[in-house]
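Rotation project, supervised by the postdoc (A.L.). Task for the rotation student: set up a whole-complex structure prediction and record inputs and outputs verbatim in this book. Inputs entered:
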Amino acid sequence: MKKKLLTLLMVITLPFGVVACGSSKTEPAESATPATQKSATAETKDSTAGEKVHLTYALWGGEDEAKNTQKTIDKFNASQDRIEVECMPIPWETYMEKLNTMAAAGQLPDCAIMSEAGVIQWAEQGMLYDISKMYDGSEARPLDSLAFTYQGKPVAYSTAFESLLLYYNKDMFDKAGIPYPSANADEAWTWDEFVEVAKKLTLDKNGKTPNDPGFDKDNIVQYGCMIENLTWQLEVWCLSNGSGFYSEDGSKVIINDPAAIEALQKIADLYLVEHVAPLSSGLTDDGVQRSLIAGTCAMTTNGAWNIGTCLAAAREEGLNYGVGVLPYMKEKVTINTGGPNVVFSQTKHPEEAMEFLKWYALEENNWDALIATGIWMPTLDSYYKDETLTRKWLENPAYPEYEEAKGVLVDYAMEYAKPASWYYVNNTTDFNSLLSSVLGDVWTGKITAEKAINDCFVALEEAHAGNN
Amino acid sequence: MQNATVSSTTQMIVRKNSNKIEKIGNLICFAFLIMIAALVMLPIWWIFRSSLMTNAELYAWPPAFLPNKWLFSNYKETLETFKFWLYFSNTMKIIVPSVVAGTFTATLCGYAFARLRFRGKKLLFSLCVGSMLLPNMVTLIPLYMMWTQGFGLGNTYWPLVLPYFCGGGAFNIFLIRQFISSIPRELDEAATIDGAGRMQILFQIIIPAIKPAMIVVALFLFITLWNDLLQQTVYINSPDKFTIAIGLSMFKSGLKADWAKIMCATCLSFLPGVVIYLFGQKYFVEGIVMTGMKN
Amino acid sequence: MQKKECMKKRGTPVMRQEERTAYLCLIPAFVGLIFLTYVPLFAVLVLSLFKWKGISAPVFNGINNYIRLFAVDPYFKDSIKVTVIFSIIAVIGSMIYSLVIAMLLNRKIPARGMFRVLFYLPYILPAAAVYIGWSWLYETNFGLFNYILKAIGIKNIMFLNDSVAVIPSLALIAVWLSGNLIVIFLAGLQNVPRVYHEAAQIDGANSWQRFCNITIPCMSPIIFYNLLMSLITNMQVVTPALALTNGGPGNSSMFMTYLMYKYAFKSNQMGYACAISFVFFIIIAIFTGILFKTSKSWIFYEGE
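Outputs recorded:
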C-alpha cells in the first residue's frame, strides 16, 4: 500500500516539476535570459539591418516604480524603432548581490541604476563603460555636480539631485514660541545657536528643558533635534567644520584632522552632553520616520527625497513640517547625491544604452512618478535657473510652501552644495562601513571620537586605498 | 506484542495513582505556557498591529498596543499593488515538486545511512555532513555560472527546484537518519526473518514509523523555499515569474517608505505557511497515535 | 553477534544486495553533493588563491589572501570572537527553551494544537520582517521594551546600539526563532517508548528522574541533531547583521558570514571573500568535529 502510494507520488511529482519549470522555459527567449545568448543573437541581428537592438535596464524600487518605469520605457520604445528596452526590477535587499553574481558570470544587463558608493570602484574594475561622450553636442546637460568621475572621465550621471537639508515640525516651534529655522542660507544658524534652539525644544515628562533646574534626562518625551548619522551624511559636518573625510582631490584621508574629529564629537555630544537628541547609531535608513514623523523630535537633517518618500504622506495625516538650511560650524555647506545610471562595459550596445539613458534622464519623461511626487529633484540646470520651470517643479502639492522650498532646494542647493565624496573617491563602500563600525562606540559615549578615529586611522587609510 | 499488553496493564495502574497529580501539573504547565506564549507572540503582534496603523501612529511615542483605528483598508490597498495570487502560484510551482522530491530523497538517503551496511559509509557520511558547513552564499556564484552558462537555465525555476531532487539537503538527510536510528532495530530484523527485502522494510516499517519526521522535513523545506530570497532573486529576472519572497522584498524596496503596508504584505505572505503548518500538524498528532501503538 | 557475522559475510549475495540498495538510495543525494557542493567548494578553494575583482581576469596571488586575512584584516579577529560568543549564547538558549517548550507541549494540556502553532510561528515569518519588528521593539529611545523598562523605573538599555548589549539582544531573537527545534523535539518525544515511562513510574521514579534517565537518553540522537543544526546555523548567521546592525556598533556584530558577504558583494573582492569563506568553513568544521567526537559518549542509539 505504502509503496504504491509513494511510487504514485513520485510519478506525480516528476511531471509536475517538468511542467512547472518547462512552462517557464518555453517562454520567449527575450525575457532577459543570459546575456551571452542574447548578445550572440543580437550580434547577428545587427548585421541584418532593420531589426531592433534589445536592451535591459536594471533598477530597484517597488512594484509601483517598476510599473511606472516600464510605462516610461514603453514611451521610449514607441518613440523610435531601433531600440527596444526592457526593465529588470530587482529588490533592493539583494540588488548588489544579483548584480555582482551576474557580473562574475558575464551576464550583466546593459544599463542600470546603481548605489552611489560602488560606482567608482566598479569603474576602477573596468565594469563601467566610459560615457564621457554621452552629452557631446547636446544642449540639455545635467548639473556638473552630478557626474561621477574616475580618472577625470565621467562614468555615470545621477538620475536626481538630492541635497541634505533641515526638516522641522512647525507646531513644536509655535508651541515653544521660537522662530522657524531659516530657508535662507544668509540667516543660517551657527552650531551653537542650533544647539540653543534644540535645548528650548527638548522637554522631559515634567515639561522642563535642559536649561531648567531639575531636568530629568532619563525621561525625555520630546527631543530638540536628531542629526542623521548615516556615515555618508556625516561628511557634511566635517566639511562644515572646515575639514572633511578626504583632502580636496580625494587622494588622502584627513578624518584625523582635529576639526573633523571635533565635528563628529559635536554630533555625538547632542545626545551625550546636551541631551537634546535621541541616541542614533547611524545604521537604519528611516531617520525621518523615527524622528519627525513619529513626533519625537522637533528637527532632523536628511536628504531631499524624504519630501516624496514619506513626508508628503505624513503631511496628509496632519504633520505640519517645514524645510530650512542646515546649521553650520565654520562654513555653510551641504552635500548632494543621487542614484547613478550606468552603462556596463559588458554590453554589446553601449551607444544605444547611452541613447536610452540620455532620454530617460530628461525630466519630462519621469515627471509624474518621481519629480512631481518629491522623490527626485531635477538634474537639468534649467530647473534651477528658469523661474517658470522652478515653479512648475516646486508648486506641487507634495512640496512645502514655494518660498521655503525654493530657498532650500534651489538657492541653498545651488550655492552651497558639494558633491558627496563618492562622486570622485574610490572605495567609499569600505571606508564608510569601517568608519561606521569605528564610530559605533562614540555615539554611546564609550570612547571619544578622537580616540576612535586615531586608533583606527591606519585601517581607514588602508580602506581608502582599497587594501582591505 | 508483549510490550503492548504490559503497557496496557501498567497504564491502568499508573493512571489511578497519578491522575490527580498529572491534572494539577498540566494546569501549572498550561499557565506557564500562556505566559511564554504571550512573550513569544509580542513581536508578531507588533508586526500585525503595525499593519493596521497609519505611519505616524506606527512610530508614535508612547508605543500603542492597539491601533487607534483598525485600518483593515490597509490590506485592501496593499493587495492592489502586491500581486499575492500571482506570487503564490509561482512559488507553488517551485515548492510542490521540491518538497515532495526533497522529502522522498532525504528519506531514501537517511535510511541508507541509518540502517544499511556498505563500503565507504563513513566517508560518504562525512561528505554529507561536511556539506552542511558551507553557507549557501559561498557557492552562489559558481552555481549561478553552472546553471546559466552551463545549462542555459537562467530565468527559469529549474535551478531552484533541481537541487531538491538531490537529497533535499544534508540537514534533512541527517534528521531522517537520526530518527531512524532511534527506532528499535528489532522491528526490521523481525521483518528480515520474514523474508522482506531492504526496500520493503523501508516502505512497510520505517516510513510509517518516521512519518512525523518526514512531515517535519516537508515543513522545513516548505519554509526554507518560501523565504529563500537570495537564490530566487539571483535566478529569476522577469516580474511575471516573481515569487512571494521576491514580491515581498520588491514591495519593501518601494521608494515610498510605507511601513504599515509593508507589514500588511508581510502578514499576508506568511499566512500560507501557517495554513500548511496547521495541515501538517494534524498528521503529526496522527503520528503520535501510530508510534504509541507500536511501542 | 549478528553484526559480526554479517561483517564476515561481506561477499555473500545478501550483503551485496544490501550494498546495492544502499548505493541506489544514495545516488540522488550524491549527485547533488558532488555537483552542488563539492565542485563549487573546490572552485572556491582555487579562487581563494587569486586576486579577483569585478570582471577583470583573476590574478594568481598565492597565499597572500590568507596572509592578509590573518595579519591585516581589521575585522577578522573580532568576527571570530563575535560569532563564537553569539553561537554559544544562542545555541544554549535555544536548546533549553525549545526542549522545555516541547516537553510542555507534549503533555495533555488544553488548546495544545493552538500552542504548537504559536511557538512555531516565529520560524515561519520571513526573516526580514522579523528583524524589522524586533528593531521597533528594541529601539533605544522610543521602543516598547525601553518604554516598559522606564515604566517600572529601570534605566534604558541600548539594545542594538550598545556594543555589549547587541550580541545578547540578537541571541534572544535567535532563541525566539527556534520554532524548528521545538518541532523536531516534539516529533522526537513521540519516539520515546511509553512503556519505559510507565515502568519507571511503577518503580516510583519522580518526573525529574524520568526526564534524566529516560527522556534524555532516548532523545539523545534528536538532541544531538538539534545541537548540531543550531550550532551550524548560528555560526553561519548573517541576517541580523544584514537587516539590523551592519556589523556594528563597532565590530560587535560582525559575524563571519556577514564579513564574507561584505567582501564578496559589497566590495567586489571575490578572491578574498573565497579565502574568508574557506577559513570559516574550517572553523565551523572544527566546532562540528568536536561536537561529533564528544557525542559518541552520550548518544544512545536504539538500533545499536
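Student's summary: The longest strand of chain C covers residues 50-51.
Supervisor addendum: Residues 1-40 of chain C form one domain.
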